[in-house]
Amino acid sequence: MSSAAEMFDVLDAEGALTGEALPGEEVHSRELWHGSAHVWIVNATQEILLQYRAADKRLLPSCWDTSAAGHISAGSNASQTAVREVGEEIGLEITEAELEELGKFTEELRMVSGTIHREHMTIFGVKKDFLLEDLHIQQEELTELKLVAAGELETMLNDSVRRKELSGHDNKLFELAIQFARS
Fold it and tell me: Which domains does the chain have, with CATH numbers?
């Protein structure tokens, strides 16, 4: 679903609902706080699924990122969004019961347009066995999927050259995936 048609609940700086719901485009253009859900999927051999974001994304294009992520639609919640986004972006069916909340934090990132993207993020982990070749990517969102060991992601995160392969999200987002895979 495109952010132009989708309505977002507007949040305040602390993450509380303001009572206002606006189209995603307006939320982004006015640099308003809103919610998102990010999901790290780890397979039976403790490998972490990464997605490569499409080159035309308005936020963090052409980089490796969380297994699946998306904005929380007005009236929805983070766990519902997580289930929806995993299904839409990579074609993997999960349930809310499979989600383990790994953390919450806020981020302000610069979009390609120059505006500031303000998000209250809820991060989940899912441990699920799957085959990479059975996943189906949403072409307008991402271009590739790969599995990496926790140690490989840690190397990417801590090497200044390899770090550029990953999205501009705060390191703690990736550290949560590494900890979750090793747990």
Answer: 7-182 (3.90.79.10)
